[in-house]
Specification:
Blueprint (H helix, E strand, L loop, with lengths): L5 E4 L3 E5 L5 E6 L2 E4 L4 E4 L3 H18 L6 E4 L4 E5 L2 E2 L2 E8 L2 H7 L6 E11 L8 E2 L1 H6 L5 H24 L2 E15 L2 E7 L7 E5 L9 H4 L5 H11 L18
Antiparallel strand pairs: 1-2, 2-3, 3-7, 4-5, 6-7, 8-12, 9-10, 9-12, 10-11, 12-13, 12-14
Helix pairs in contact: 1-6
């Protein structure tokens, strides 16, 4: 059977033409990258876990009325999504100081912020995804003021949902990044949460121990990445309680 036509290949996913107009098949790879792809590895089972976790979060968002591009999971590594025009921004929501923000502002990692802080980065690997302001976004026409109002609202609603879900299973949502896409119905445009939501795009810390359960495990050589992601999936009820990362992931439908 011939492979679908490839549209794009990124660091963690491959996009293929979907079976119907206006759809795309999103394939999750096992590749792990950090520091703008300066550090690379292949982590067996990572793509399977991220596919299932992203499905779980996107489905939950759709259920509470936060629109996403997600349609359905096709198999262990692929999901069907709506085709959309990606706004060239990474939208970052921070609840605690960590990563680049902690370094940039000289803050101790783990410091709780007075309120969720939303930041924007230009999506450009060659430039290292630089931090930009709403003034840059408006001046260069990357998004309109109405878009920015809607993006802020979407980001904070995602934060409320994700923080609640994670807290319920003993995990602190430190920060996360999302991408936003434009979907057109004739002349009407709406914004949707696109790309993925997974431990690749979130910082997740165990509330009791502070153990990192996200891609910082790979960035900082803190142990097994699949162990960390498997723990997140297990707590959310997506894997059998006895499952271990040493076996091929067996996910619960």
């Amino acid at each position: 059977m011939s492979r679908r036509k490839k549209i794009y290949e990124g660091k963690a996913k491959i996009l293929y033409e979907g079976p119907e107009p206006g759809t795309i098949v999103q394939y999750f790879k096992d590749d792990a990258t950090a520091f703008n792809a300066q550090k690379k590895d292949v982590i067996e089972g990572k793509g399977v876990l991220n596919n299932r976790l992203s499905e779980y979060f996107m489905t939950g968002l759709n259920t509470i009325g936060v629109p996403t591009h997600f349609i359905r999971r096709l198999n262990m590594r692929e999901q069907l999504v709506r085709s959309c025009e990606i706004i060239p921004l990474e939208v970052i929501v921070r609840n605690f100081a960590a990563g680049t923000m902690a370094k940039r502002l000289g803050m101790e990692e783990g410091t709780q912020l007075p309120r969720p802080i939303v930041e924007y980065c230009l999506k450009d690997d060659k430039l290292g995804d630089p931090l930009v302001t709403e003034e840059h976004i408006a001046a260069f026409g990357w998004a309109s003021q109405q878009d920015m109002d809607d993006i802020l609202s979407l980001a904070l609603r995602v934060n409320d949902f994700m923080a609640g879900v994670m807290y319920g299973v003993g995990i602190r949502l430190v920060d996360f990044k999302i991408e936003i896409g434009r979907v057109y119905d004739g002349d009407f445009q709406r914004l949707v949460v696109a790309d993925e939501i997974s431990p690749d795009s979130c910082r997740l810390w165990d509330i009791e121990t502070g153990r990192k359960l996200d891609k910082d495990v790979f960035r900082r050589d803190l142990g097994s990445l699949t162990d960390a992601y498997t723990e997140v999936a297990r707590r959310l009820g997506l894997m059998p309680k006895a499952a271990t990362a040493m076996t091929k992931p067996t996910l619960i439908n």
